[in-house]
Design brief:
The complex is a heterodimer. By secondary structure, chain A is mainly α. Chain A has eight helices and no strands. The N and C termini of chain A lie close together (about 10 Å). The chains are: A mainly alpha, B alpha+beta. Chains A and B meet through helix 1, helix 2, helix 3, helix 4 and helix 5 of A and helix 1, helix 3, helix 4, helix 5 and strand 5 of B.
């Protein structure tokens, strides 16, 4: 395989999950060191509140710990797996908040990112994936971007999105498809480059 | 109610499924189709991965450092207690467990009271009614008091349980520290300062158990947003053994598990890096200790 940083990084990642599955709690700590910022960023984007986000981060890493034995090597690797858990926990939390407050969508706290500026990349963000995805998302037509973001970060169903945006259901589906296909294309390019 | 969907219908709906945005009946129909269509399953998997990549577009918001450190130790302690508690490793667990389900609210119990039967005479009827009302009030008060005690006990229990988990975790960490230092084949690597002040460190490495225990002293205070990162330098490059902060007195302790063949360690180093650490060191080591058994 490649000799790049990604390969050397991917190996210890898998190793961490293997050790977690064997009951080594230190591995959970290391996974946390590596990904808590990513997981927290997703949680903040979805729930928009530091206390709720902290609960989401805790629930996510705890789920990772309990399910490490069932982790199957997917194409996206450990960060994709963790992010899927985190997003799912965050959306659960958001829905619970919505139920408890009986809030309308419009009344939910607006996520910190008004989603016009790109993600705040800093020195630690040498991560190629992040830059590529951010670019790919930024270049999506606004209506496609809105569709996937409402679904992904607000946990809205296609029917809710259709209502919120005043578009027919078929249009919502098409926008979701075009957007994800474009992102998939960007990821494929990234993989090619890494090869 | 089942929805009829053709292969093409399902294909058109897969992106929405990848975003968990399908509504009930359609989601059920799509899942039924997926059970016997490899093409659609593969397509869904790649779309899910694309959807997951959206996470990287979220603005980067690191958690407050202290909060994060507390959460980290809470998680590790919970995991230590979890791993130590059952002989069964944390395998098959229902997903609800992980979702952090709240303990069911101690719902208000409805105590069925036999409906008061009408008395024969008004006098008796009044008495019976008054007695029933009194009884109802008494039962209600008693139930409320019980509920209050139940809640208070529940809270105390939760507090004690948390404390216990923390203690078990702390004890487990101490035990593993002692074990990591006292093994027969434990190697010790001294790290000396490369700067004028005098920070130093000592790594205890037990190759048999793959445990690394590191102590440092005299570490300079970090700038905000920075952390120390510990590295194992191997012929293949530096391997991160985790990030850490020092106490105000400049002390720190790090434990890691990382299997490494004896001949693969060249040195141990500590660098000053952005919070959360980097895949590769970006600064020159503050302390460094070389190692080579053959030499």
């Amino acid at each position: 395989m490649g000799d790049g940083g990604a390969a050397t990084r991917a190996e210890p990642d898998r190793e961490l999950v293997r050790r977690m599955a064997a009951g080594d709690e230190a591995a959970l700590g290391q996974l946390y060191d590596r990904y808590s910022t990513l997981v927290h960023s997703v949680a903040m984007r979805v729930v928009g509140d530091a206390d709720d986000a902290e609960e989401v981060v805790e629930a996510s890493f705890w789920q990772a710990w309990r399910q490490a034995g069932r982790y199957e090597e997917g194409r996206g690797g450990i960060s994709t797996w963790l992010v899927m858990i985190a997003r799912s926990r965050a959306v659960d939390r958001l829905r619970a908040l919505r139920r408890s407050r009986e809030q309308a969508w419009e009344e939910l706290p607006e996520p910190s990112d008004a989603s016009t500026d790109g993600p705040a990349l800093d020195a630690a963000e040498s991560d190629e994936l992040r830059r590529m995805v951010a670019t790919a998302v930024a270049t999506l037509p606004p209506e496609q971007r809105e569709t996937v973001e409402l679904a992904y970060f607000r946990g809205m169903s296609q029917t809710e999105i259709a209502e919120a945006t005043g578009q027919p259901l078929g249009t919502v589906k098409t926008r979701a498809r075009l957007a994800l296909q474009k992102l998939r294309g960007a990821l494929a390019v990234l993989r090619e480059d890494a090869r | 109610m089942s929805l009829d969907m053709t292969h093409d219908d399902v294909q058109a709906a897969l992106a929405a499924e990848a975003l968990d945005a399908l509504d009930g009946p359609e989601a059920a129909a799509v899942r039924a189709h997926l059970a016997h269509c490899d093409d659609c399953r593969r397509e869904l998997e790649s779309l899910r991965e694309a959807a997951a990549s959206l996470a990287h577009a979220a603005p980067r918001v690191p958690m407050d450092a202290e909060r994060s450190a507390r959460l980290r130790s809470r998680l590790v302690a919970r995991a230590a207690a979890d791993a130590g508690a059952g002989a069964t490793p944390p395998r098959a667990v229902s997903s609800t467990d992980a979702a952090g389900v709240d303990a069911g609210a101690a719902g208000t119990r409805v105590i069925p009271l036999a409906s008061a039967r009408r008395g024969r005479s008004w006098g008796v009827g009044w008495l019976a009614a008054a007695a029933a009302v009194l009884l109802l009030i008494a039962v209600g008060t008693y139930a409320a008091r019980l509920k209050g005690r139940y809640d208070a006990l529940g809270e105390r229990y939760a507090a004690i349980d948390t404390e216990r988990t923390e203690l078990v975790g702390a004890l487990a960490r101490r035990d593993s520290t002692v074990a990591a230092l006292s093994g027969p084949g434990v190697q010790v690597i001294e790290l000396a300062s490369t700067q004028q002040r005098a920070p130093g460190g000592r790594m205890f490495w037990d190759p048999q158990t793959a445990r690394w225990t590191f102590f440092a002293h005299g570490l300079p205070a970090l700038r905000p947003g920075r952390e120390y990162q510990l590295w194992l330098i191997t012929p293949g490059g530096p391997v991160s053994a985790g990030t850490f902060k020092s106490t105000p007195e400049g002390l720190a302790q790090v434990q890691a598990t990382y299997p490494l063949p004896r001949d693969q360690l060249r040195a141990v180093a500590v660098t000053d890096e952005p919070e959360g650490g980097l895949p590769q060191p970006s600064t020159t080591p503050i302390i460094l200790g070389s190692y080579g058994e053959s030499e």
